[in-house]
Design a protein that fits this description.
Distance between the termini: 35 Å
Number of helices: 12
Shape: globular
Structural class: mainly alpha
Helix content: over 70%
Largest sheet: none
Radius of gyration: 18 Å
Strand content: under 5%
Number of domains: 2
């Protein structure tokens, strides 16, 4: 995996976690209108296309802040207009798929985090499964942890299996974040990412669920067998 891909995935995971942490403050101050935020940052043609995409996403009930942020990120990096528009079209499609997987009751931060998870290889079915396991609790932090694990080199299917297992074991958000930190520490010390995630998951999850993951791994399946 190239350094640029790792960096991009790392930033996606960090963005998802920041969205989760900022969700409680979302209503404190209304965001500035997209047209105002983009003024002077893009050429006229690109700005018009971006605003059209933002307006379309808003009419479909999708969160628009990730689209505006992506456009501003592209502008700050000096990306050409067509590339910015293409990136926003891709993101808009992922936001739509995330909304479809999670349903209309999902919050904007959840949809944004789910779009990031889709981008790194998590399927819509897995998103729906994670949401079901989470019950009425938001899954924004869980998705942020998942994306961050992938950014650290854990294969997407292994990261999804670990987070789903922990979620089904009723591990809360603080414990999920501590799990991620533990995996990151192990990787920094030289442990293979997939092995680090598996070992730390075993330490956090009940023995019955951990045994199921180990049995599945020996059979060549990274998804845990549920009791």
């Amino acid at each position: 995996m190239s350094a640029s891909v790792k960096t991009t995935r790392r930033l996606l995971g960090a963005l998802a976690v920041l969205l989760a942490l900022g969700a409680g403050r979302a209503g404190a101050q209304a965001p500035r209108p997209a047209a105002e935020r983009l003024a002077g940052r893009l050429d006229a043609g690109t700005r018009a296309q971006v605003l059209t995409l933002v307006d379309s996403a808003g009419r479909e009930g999708l969160p628009v802040e990730p689209l505006v942020d992506k456009a501003l990120e592209g502008a700050s990096k000096g990306a050409p207009g067509p590339r910015i528009v293409l990136a926003l079209r891709t993101l808009a499609g992922e936001l739509g798929a995330a909304r479809e997987a999670l349903g209309r009751t999902a919050s904007d931060p959840e949809v944004a985090a789910a779009a990031g998870a889709l981008h790194i290889g998590v399927s819509g079915e897995e998103l729906a499964e994670l949401q079901k396991a989470r019950g009425r609790q938001p899954i924004t932090v869980a998705l942020g942890v998942l994306s961050d694990l992938v950014a650290r080199g854990v294969p997407a299917d292994s990261a999804t299996a670990a987070v789903l297992t922990l979620t089904e074991a009723s591990v809360d958000d603080d414990e999920l974040v501590e799990f991620r930190r533990s995996v990151e520490r192990d990787i920094a010390l030289g442990a293979p990412p997939a092995a680090a995630a598996s070992v730390r998951m075993n330490a956090f999850a009940p023995a019955t669920l951990s045994d199921g993951l180990e049995q599945g791994a020996r059979a060549g399946n990274t998804r845990p067998r549920r009791p």
